Amino acid sequence: MEERLNMKSKDIDRLRVIRNIIEGKMTWSIGAEMLRLRIRQIGRLCAQVRLKGNRGILHGLCAQPSNNRLDAQLLGQALSVLHDPMWRGFRPTFAQQKLEALHGISLGVETVRKLMILTNIWEPGRRGATHRAWRERRACVGMLIQLDGSPHDWFEGRGPGCVLIIYIDDATSRVLYGEFVHVEDTLTLMRTTRTYLKRWGRPVAFYVDKDSIYNINRQAAVEEELRDAQPMTQFTRAMSELGIEVILAHSPQAKGRVERGFLTHQDRLVKELRLAGISSMEQANEFLWKAYIPDHNRRCEVDPADPVDVHKPLLASHDLAAILSIQIQRQVQNDFTIRHRNRFFQLQDGQPVHIRPKAEITAQERLDGSTHLVFKGRRLKFHEIPGRPLRPALVRPSQRAQATAPLKLRRRHANPFFAGISLTSSKAPWNPPASALLQA
Description:
This protein has helices spanning 9-22, 28-35, 39-52, 72-82, 92-103, 109-118, 186-200, 222-226, 234-241, 256-276, 281-300, 320-323, 397-404, 407-414, 434-439, and strands spanning 145-152, 162-169, 175-181, 205-208, 245-248, 326-331, 337-340, 343-347, 360-365, 371-375, 378-379, 382-385. By secondary structure, the chain is of the alpha+beta class. The strands form 3 sheets. Strands 3-2-1-4-5 form a 5-stranded mixed beta sheet, sandwiched between helices. A 4-stranded antiparallel beta sheet has the order 6-9-10-11, with no helix packed on it. The chain starts with 8 loop residues before the first helix and ends with a helix.
């Protein structure tokens, strides 16, 4: 049976020259010049072709297993782990890291990628090239913090649905704080921001999207235009009182650092929680703070252009409990009561500041669930009442007499047709003659 050899075009040209030399059609010196080899190498090739035939032109290691090939047993162990249902959806890079961390199997990323493709565990996909304008990172830590939340099935049906809130520094790509919460609303954002501020201090600016938590899509009211102020949400108002700027991003790509980070978290963090057997928010937050965020920052953090941390400390005048609250303006009634969310509050005597009826005070709904009333920066003394006491209506004598009259008579008095006619006379009513009716 004739042997089949795989040769490159370079090997075929070299074999043709060596055959011509062996058959005496060409000298060694001309063949060496054509192949750009030394004459001694031409002699070796001629001897190999005479001994082995056409195979002699090929290198001796051609079609032989590599001396640096990986152990088949090691590859089998890796494949058995990758086929485990717990590893469903792992990408090559993440799978390579977890193979080394959990099972001590040290393989290259490209090796794991080829194994996963050959065994149909993973299919490579092409990403479309979209042009985006590059924005330079901020120079220092704390100059710009990208803030966003991601609702996702983080527990893959094993636990309740939740949202991951992330605070990531623009200068270093470091996740400064993260937390799983039930819902992304104003009070939740205030609570997570309070934890961030106590841990790191006040950043220069927060970079957020145009969600209704951060942005009001309406024109300024007349009172706001008179004050030359723009309408602000509760969160933006609180950050303004703390001296923190809130910058709105016009597209998801503008704050791509936190958006791309969520793609990584939705891939890796979900699988980390699966491997750890975590199915509750409390356990997930502990794992997030103690294991996942430190490991993520170790791999993804970059050095800032300037090592200075520009976070500003909280001042003694910053009452976070009052600032990070829902603040609504309410008016004092004549009986010094205030109605707020269908609840009634009675202001007490002896307030720290003078209050008049119709005064505008601020009702604060704080994070601990309590309600406080504030006027000119001073907290007021009050207590809740079940409702405003009802007062009897003042009735004038004429109205009282009219109210005691029969209903039919009251209606006739109100009708102008009966004006000038006595409705209380005991005489029989006047009946006009038929001739008058005919003339009419």
